[in-house]
Amino acid sequence: MQAHTTLIRAGALLTASLAAGTAAAHAIDDALYPLTDSLMQGKVSLDVRYRFEQVDQDRPASIRDQASAQTVRTRLGWRTGLFHGFFAYGEAENVSVVGEADYNNTYNGKTRFPVVADPKGTEVNQAYLGYLGLKGNTFRYGRQAFFFDNHRFVGDVGWRQNQQTFDSFFYENKMLPGVTGSYAYVYNVNRVFGEDTPNKAFGNAGDLRLNGHLINLQWKPNPVTTLTGYAYLLDFDRFAGESTATYGLRAIGEIPLPQLKLPTLPGAAGSAILYTAEYARQSDYADNPGNFNLDYALAEGGVRLFGVNFKAAYELLEGGAMHGTRALQTPLATLHAFNGWTDQFLRTPAAGLKDTYFTVGGPVPGVAMDWLVRYDSYKSDVGSNDYGSEWGMLLSKTFAEKYTIGVKYADYSTDAPAFIAGRPDTSDVSKSWLWVQIKI
């Protein structure tokens, strides 16, 4: 009887132990399965763009041939699902040259050709950890792409094949209706010239180390109006003379004109008055040995009629500070989007820049194609001397939200009687592009 009782107790103990072990195993599995699920529920992204770019430049005399650049940019990314609010994203990028590299990529020594800043190479384009566990809040840390407003002061330079990204901490808050507050601490900028470039000058270095604090506060009081205040504090490690603090205000919106009752193209927005106004003040910051205060201003007005946007604008980047040696600069911008498409003013001349420009664009009836024509006239801020003028045109079409084909042309004519080293705007130059892009 005693043996029987002992056997029953042993069996009960074994059963309890097995149950406990099974429960522990299930607890481990329960902890692992959400992590596994988050990985299995991840999403692959693919972005491939072929582009042909041709550049014809008449000065300096060392440039003897047209540049012809055929490149393919491929980005392959992976984003995990959420695990307790956390997610991760990684993206590799490759830029390859098709055929002969008949262009100056800024460091290949082919100076008989004009510059096309699309060097070949492979690198980690983005790699960051994010957190979405607090409703209305986004946290990201690592190498990432982002921009503010229209890219004028902070952009990802999506036009070039090698994207500009930021090694940074990024925080975004959307807890209040219509309000978006963003802050980024940036400690390195990975620029379009690539990791393999030997260039060390500020204008075309591959990396810019800095202590950068980027603050952007945006409010949308209604669906067609956006008001923004910003502060961009840039303290560069190796280029103290480029360290600046920029504070600004921006307003963009439209005033609908339903009373006109004009017909519009299918899918196009209705008639409206369009406006943008922006003002910023830039000064020396941190260890910058200079002493300056410079203004930025933008006034843009227009109207949308029959689905077509007509705009006229004036942009000022003040110059002439520090005895005529300093102008307002925007080194983190997507510069190709401003002051013409031939990139003659990537760095503001010391005398500053006044850009008066006109644009007309909209959808092409019946073919779902976008078009834009642009004309710019450039003068210096100090002395109001003529730099030159440029006109350009763009056609692009997107199919099935994944495939895009586009053509673009721009022609800049200088008023300078002779070439000045370090001043691209003292050359005549024309550029043309053809591209095909697939995004999945």
Number of helix segments? Answer: 2
- Helix and strand element order: HEEEEEEEEEEEEEHEEEEE
Strand content: over 45%
What is the averaged pLDDT score?
Answer: 91
Task: Jot down its keywords.
single chain; 440 residues; mainly beta; 18-stranded antiparallel β-barrel; 2 helices
Describe the protein.
This protein has 440 residues and is mostly beta strands. It has a domain at 1-40. Helices cover 10% and strands 49% of the residues. The protein has helices at 2-40, 321-324, and strands spanning 43-57, 67-79, 86-97, 121-131, 137-144, 165-173, 179-190, 207-222, 225-236, 244-256, 272-284, 293-305, 308-317, 353-364, 369-379, 386-399, 403-414, 429-439. It has an 18-stranded antiparallel beta barrel. Strand 14 and strand 15 (369-379) form a beta hairpin. The radius of gyration is 27 Å and the shape is globular.
